[in-house]
Amino acid sequence: MAIPRNLNGRAVAAADETLDWAAVRSQFPIMERKVQGDIPLVYLDSAASSQKPAAVLEAMSRYYRTSHANVHRGVHTLSEEATALYEEARQSAGRLINAPSSRECVYVRNTTEGINLVAGSWGRANLGPGDTVVTTAMEHHSNIVPWQILQAERGFDLRYVPVTPEGHLDRDVFGSLMAEEPKLVCFTHVSNVLGTVNPVAELTAEAHAAGALVLVDGAQGVPHLPVDVQALGVDFYAYSGHKMCGPTGIGLLWARRELLQAMPPWMGGGEMIREVTLEGSRWNELPYKFEAGTPAIAEAVGLGAAAAYLMDLGMDNVARHSAYLTSYAYNQLAEIEGLQILGPGPEERMGLVSFHVDEVHPHDLSAILDLDGVAIRAGHHCAQPLHRFLDLVASARASFYLYNTESEIDRLAAGIERARRIF
Amino acid sequence: MDQLYREAIIDHYKYPRHHGSLEDPDYKAHDLNPFCGDELTIELKVDEDGIIRGVAFDGKGCAISQASASMLMEEILHESLDEVKTWTREDILDMLGIEIGPVRMKCAMLSLKVLKKGIYGLDQFEEEELD
């Protein structure tokens, strides 16, 4: 098959024809939404939070309508049903990233909480003066700030891998930092600003060779890419439900079993204990040791339904569709005068295009696009260090998912042209 | 759009008034809008009678935040400090003359926030009054 090319002769990723993407779009009720009077919504902000298919909404509604009770407590019918649904969902959410066992899958509120759990539990127990933690300048604040907070308490060295002008992690500096034998190396799977897909397996092998553990922020990876934590070889992997068709308030932290077993609890309360006496307590088995208090049960059910939905579509198909939309958008936007795209070329990125338009501040651009019914993100995207590196206060970001179409991206491009004429 | 980006807003954004800095300012304050990264510094010179005789602002950010600062500089020049202290969020909205939603409100109010911070000193006014 010939590689499709646009007018500039750039290669465009081939559209995925395995699935009927119009039918997929119709499974998302919010796609019927009109905004600004009678304009069909163009939702290009899925990297901030994705929309939800009916299957997820119905699973959550059905749970509350027919089976709700507290989990792991009562022995009555509803409690058993709720517990079964809650645990089936954990298996589904774990299968999505090929976790070897759902025992190694801890429910968290989101990726941020997963990283904070590792910092607060593993980090507090294992890091001290003389130790080094490596993270990167490409990270979302959620993979920087927890380490800064812990560093202030524990006094270890925190080092950052810089980003090259092309939008990749600087592998030379990465290599030289490994020579310092860090205890932990943290990086994102996919950059939420540049869209860069990091070579997780390669970086992990390099970190392991230096004796470090590896934590990966999977918030932008899991929605778009087939993820196999065993093949990647990582030690900790966290992702959020709400960016991959699931609800807010739920996500998953996967970690290797021996790490979780050795880690102390990070919150105390009900559910996480085996035995409590006034003299002291013993901890529950995995993963409940890390799940104090009544959890977000309906949200967990929704997460499991979202994972099942994506696995039904097939993550390879999802990845092809996302790659196609991303390269289509990249090529459309690259033709707009005065617009600079941040980050690498279309073949090295996934799910999003961030950019800057001369003379038009991203907030103003977003406000003008909103009047056309087009929703994009404007701001620093919780990545201030990266924006400082790029010498920008803020940027605009269009991000794509299962339900988006070429014509929606065309409407984005037309809206940007309109904003340029106003300024 | 004609509402939010009326001509005066674009004009103040592209051709800001009193942009820069003052020599030896009597008051100076800087703040930013962490939500979207707008930045603003305001400087004032005030005479013995408490009348504002010099104004300057510097910063970077969206059209709403920077136009708001530029317009505010024009409004307060030759006014008394005591008068300016009574300015409220409503005065800023009247000055801008546009409808502003809750998200952009922080952009619009940054100028007043920095001004009040500069006059009263940090934390001596209720941030809530600007929300």
Helix-strand blueprint:
The complex is a heterodimer of chains A (423) and B (131).
Chain A: H1 21-26, E1 34-35, E2 39-40, E3 42-43, H2 54-67, H3 77-95, E4 105-108, H4 111-126, E5 132-136, H5 145-154, E6 157-161, H6 171-178, E7 184-188, H7 200-209, E8 213-217, H8 229-232, E9 236-240, E10 251-255, H9 257-262, E11 273-277, E12 280-283, H10 297-313, H11 315-334, E13 339-342, E14 352-357, H12 362-371, E15 374-375, E16 377-379, H13 384-390, E17 395-399, H14 406-422
Chain B: H1 7-14, E1 27-33, E2 38-46, E3 52-60, H2 63-76, H3 81-85, H4 89-96, H5 102-120
Antiparallel strand pairs in B: 1-2, 2-3
- Could you say which structural class the secondary elements and strand pairing of chain B correspond to? alpha+beta
Mean pLDDT of chain A: 94
The count of β-strands of chain A is 17
Q: Note poorly predicted spans of chain A.
A: 1-9
Biggest sheet architecture of chain A: 7 strands, mixed
Number of helices of chain A: 14
Q: What is the helix content of chain A?
A: 25-40%
Cα-atom radius of gyration of chain B: 14 Å
Uncertain ranges of chain B:
none
What's the helix-strand series of chain B? Answer: HEEEHHHH
**How many strands, what sense, and barrel or not for the largest sheet of chain B?**
3 strands, antiparallel
What does this protein look like?
The complex is a heterodimer of chains A (423) and B (131). Chain A is of the alpha/beta class and 423 residues long. Chain A has 14 helices and 17 strands. In chain A, strand 1 (34-35) and strand 2 (39-40) form a beta hairpin. Chain A starts with 20 loop residues before the first helix and ends with a helix. Chain B has 131 residues and is an alpha+beta fold. In chain B, 41% of the residues lie in helices and 19% in strands. In chain B, strands 1-2-3 form a three-stranded antiparallel beta sheet, with helices on one face. The radius of gyration of chain B is 14 Å and the shape is globular. The mean pLDDT of chain B is 87.
